[in-house]
Design a protein that fits this description.
The chain is of the alpha+beta class and about 250 residues long. It folds into two domains: about 1-165, Beta-Lactamase, CATH 3.30.450.20; about 175-250, Winged helix-like DNA-binding domain superfamily/Winged helix DNA-binding domain (Arc Repressor Mutant, subunit A), CATH 1.10.10.10. The chain contains ten helices and eight strands. The protein has helices spanning about 35-40, 45-55, 75-80, 90-95, 100-110, 160-165, 175-190, 190-200, 205-215, 220-230, and strands at about 1-5, 10, 25, 60-65, 70, 120, 135-145, 150-160. Strands 1, 2, 3, 4, 5, 6, 7 and 8 form an eight-stranded mixed sheet that branches. Helix 7 crosses helix 9. The relative contact order is 0.12.
């Protein structure tokens, strides 16, 4: 069965072709925003699929192997905090919040290198220009007839229950270099004396910087400081030991 509205070819059984290792193959990628009548005429299920995506408020985009956006629906653009006509050609990873950019880049890299066929990452769709949005991102590799990755379909579902509680902020230069290193040490649980030795500071110097950050972020103790930093997206996701995103550090 060929779904020309979505550009995806499936075997008659409706399941991915196991002779290609479960890969979905792609014939072509017509514009997602094509006329509804064309989708109905060319595919039995394409229009139903697109309607479901729209009804659940999901963003839909197609990116090339370099993660440049080729097509997207208006919902995806709205999720990113951009107008629809400004999305195409932009790098998907550059649109993501810096805290998740490296982690999500690795997920897409696994698709391009054919180590994975798909992924689902909850609360990974965090955007640099739309910090109040939280969503689940799904990536599905689409292969051509010879098994090469031709495109990646990206679906983003909003996590509505979490959006009201997220305190993620847009990247701002809110930390000095020394405060960033101290915050990383506190997040790991390094004792003050050991941290002072590593950073060539006195114990009182470390305590001074910690106290300064407690006041800056309006938290009562070190545990709350680390928790708030994580909630604000100041640490890179999926990385240990914790590393402060460079976008938050003043030069």
């Amino acid at each position: 069965m060929v779904d020309t509205a979505l550009g995806v070819t499936f075997p008659d059984s409706g399941m991915p072709d196991r002779s290609r290792g479960g890969l979905v193959t792609l014939n072509h990628l017509p514009p997602i925003n094509s006329r509804r009548e064309d989708a109905i005429d060319s595919s039995e299920y394409g229009d139903i699929f697109l309607s479901i995506v729209e009804n659940v408020g999901a963003g839909l985009a197609v990116v090339d192997p370099l993660l440049r956006i080729q097509e997207n629906n208006p919902i995806f653009a709205e999720q990113c905090g951009h107008r629809d006509e400004r999305i195409r050609g932009l790098s998907l990873c550059e649109l993501l919040h810096p805290s998740v950019r490296q982690h999500m880049g690795r997920q897409f890299e696994r698709l391009v290198e054919r180590r994975n066929v798909s992924f689902v990452e909850r609360q990974a769709a965090l955007w640099a220009t739309h910090p109040n949005f939280v969503g689940t991102m799904t990536g599905i590799a689409v292969h051509n007839d010879i098994g090469q990755v031709q495109a990646i379909v990206v679906l983003v579902y909003p996590d509505r229950a979490d959006n009201g509680h997220r305190t993620l902020i847009s990247p701002k230069k809110v930390l000095t270099e020394i405060n960033a290193r101290i915050l990383e040490g506190v997040a790991v649980g390094i004792p003050t004396v050991q941290l002072a030795s590593r950073l060539y500071l006195s114990r009182q110097g470390v305590e001074y910087h910690v106290s300064s950050m407690l006041r800056q972020f309006k938290v009562p103790n070190r545990a709350a400081l680390v928790s708030k930093a994580y909630s604000m997206g100041m640490f890179k996701i999926g990385l240990w030991p914790p590393k402060v995103v460079t976008d938050y550090i003043r030069g």
